[in-house]
Amino acid sequence: MATRAISPYAQLPNALTVFRLVLIPVFVVVLLGADEGRSVPAFVVFAVAGTTDQVDGWLARRWRVESAFGKVADPLADRLLIDSAVVLLFLADRLPWVALAAILARDVVLVAGYKLVVPRGYDLSVSGLGKLATWVLYASLGFMLLTGAGTSWPLWLFWAGLVLAVAAAALYVRAALRGVRT
Question: How far is CA 147 from CA 27, 92, 136, 142, 174, in A?
């Protein structure tokens, strides 16, 4: 049975989210210095940042300290980390323009949708499919950071993650429309 965390630990999930946000510019700077989008140091920063996503959510649920800040900042940090990796890998010619467009379009829809439905009282909770999509995208982007240009299997993993992400976004939109109508 989960117990409520005592005050010093209650903010740890949010602190991990803020840490992930702080790591994004570090990741960007390290990857900008990479050779054609391949960088073990950038991978390490990306992996640490991505791991905090799993840890902060797990702790918040386990300790029952989910917060309004965490519900907004956590998915925002995920989007910013993934989007920054996608943009930089596109600029390094590791991802095609359609991948960049699809990820950015999906995130614009999610952010715009969030701003429309939350003020109307609809609570957007992350789905299992959304979590799976995020982790497949994290894995594919991480593998791209470790492999050289021309390695195709991380790109195929990316496309699988993108399909999952679009499916999850469609389910969010459908649920939000139903929630707003009722």
Answer: 17, 13, 16, 9, 37
